[in-house]
Amino acid sequence: MMQADISLEAALNALLLADAHALDGKDMSGWLGNYAEEEAASYYCRSAENSEHGFALGFMYDDCRSRLEDRVTFVNDIWAGTFQDYRTRHFVQLTSFDRIDATTLGMRSNFSVFMTPKDTGITQVLAAGQYLDSVRQGKNGELKLLSRRAELDTSVLPRYLVYPI
Amino acid sequence: MTDIKLSWPKNYNEIPKEAFVREDIYAEEVKRIFHGTEWHPVAHESELPNPGDFKTYRLAGVPLLIGRDVDGVVRVFYNACSHRGNQLETAVMGNKTEFECPYHRWLFDSKGDLVGCPNPREFLPGFNKADYPLAQPRFDIFFGLIFVTISAETEALLDYLGDSQNCLRELLAGDGRLKLLGYQKVRYDTNWKSYTDNDGYHAPLLHQAFKMLNWQGGKGRQYTATHRGHICFESALSVATGPSVLKDKSLIEFKGQDPAVGSRIVSLFPTFVSTKHLDVINLRFATPIDAETVEVHYAYFAHQDDDEEMVRHRLRQSSNLLGPCGLISMEDASVFHRIHIGNHTPGSAIFQKGVHDPLKLESEFLQNDESGNLPRWEYYRSVMGFKRAAA
């Protein structure tokens, strides 16, 4: 592996961890901040079962930057105080990446997410799956998510979702 | 049937909370209701558009194989080999013209006929493959919606649906010519009856989105169809007005034809809920897993005549609005959990909104009443054989 690849891999890992950190901290502004400031920025969360059968329908389908911003409003404002809150811990592992063009990279990683509802205190697996990401590389080399698809092996969720996976 | 004791209050608007949590009651519900004389929607034909398409589903534990045979005819089988009962198909959905049981390689065609089995000369004398097709429950179809009943005694499907037929047909786009968009599947930590006991009262109160988007309805009606207490909601579609907190307003746009009765819900006893709201067509196939868990498969549909733009609109609206993570429904999911915890306390759940006389049942209700659920509770009580206290 060349030196450039090693530093790129480290930067991609930092982006993965930044997203996990924001989600586990329920920092929706931080979550949004990991996405490119482009109209095409998108986040999808859907079952691998749907994908395998050619269905684009998901648990969350935010296909533009304004939908991402509205996702922050859902969590922070619209749903506030109506649900049993739960902690999450995202474990992510980069599995591959490749360069698509001068400013775009493709990245795949595995994830597992534990959840602990505050009322029961019992920890269980919320979902496992893989992230299929497009990553935008800025002029100074900084990386942001252009598109993320959280594809869930977990086709039957054990619980409703408040926060993105 | 086992005689289960539960003291039931004299007032129609009081439901004993024990009914939601007792294991012995649940075991009896499976016998009397889920394996009893009720019809259960398990799929829509549009989930199996092509010859050979199939879907598997478990109805209160009973494994079903719902398929379209090579001639295009929809059939429902028990998903178990006619030999030793091994689960025949393990995929959730797919396309096959033959189903082979791997255990002893018995082979069935898409019509359920046994077409091959190894070493038949060593079987009992007189063995005939024609005597061993896949077993079938009774099933019937209403505008593409496939219903199954385990009992031979259940009345005809149209009688079962009664006055809910019109609302259900309209909800199925009037002609049942749907196109599957995909699924959201989830388990809720709640008794199946709490899941289906959602009411008209809570909508503008629990769901802050309605308030924040200045999106108020309340002008519609709900009515009870048949003595089972199937509930139909019909209301004019209200759309959000005024300044929106959403940057992408297209999420809650209505692009359909007629807003006059643009919002419909049909809730059939025991667990089926279907809804058409804005441009979302959603059929929720639900089954109890145990006394404390219900599994819901939210299936979403477009219409076969939709153009590409409409399909995309339905796709993003369906994904984000009414499911277990939806803008105006995630809170329902949380309430399902919380009400189940609360049901482990003594006493009865009390219904107030829309109740005029606690000793009388009505059949016509306002959109935001909660009393629309009471006729189905009375039917539940009678099926379960619980004796109501004297008035």
Task: Provide structural commentary.
Chain B: Pfam families: Rieske, Ring_hydroxyl_A. The complex is a heterodimer of chains A (165) and B (391). Helices cover 28% and strands 39% of the residues of chain A. Chain A contains four helices and seven strands. Chain A has a single domain (3-152), classed as Nuclear Transport Factor 2, Chain: A, CATH 3.10.450.50. The longest helix of chain A has 22 residues, at 3-24. Chain B has 391 residues and is an alpha+beta fold. Chain B folds into two domains: 14-35 and 164-384, Naphthalene 1,2-dioxygenase Alpha Subunit, Chain A, domain 1 (Alpha-Beta Complex); 40-142, 3-layer Sandwich (Rieske Iron-sulfur Protein). Chain B has helices at residues 18-21, 23-34, 157-161, 165-171, 192-196, 203-206, 208-212, 308-320, 330-342, 374-384, and strands at residues 14-16, 40-44, 53-59, 62-68, 74-78, 93-95, 98-100, 107-109, 114-116, 138-142, 145-149, 178-188, 221-225, 230-235, 263-268, 272-277, 280-290, 293-303, 348-350, 364-366. Chain B has an eight-stranded antiparallel beta sheet, sandwiched between helices. Chain A binds chain B through residues 45-47, 49-50, 53, 55-64, 66-67, 69-70, 73-74, 77-80, 82-84, 119, 155-162, and chain B through 92-93, 180-189, 206, 208-209, 212, 245-248, 251, 295, 300, 315-316, 318-320, 323-325, 327, 330-331, 333-334, 337-338, 341.
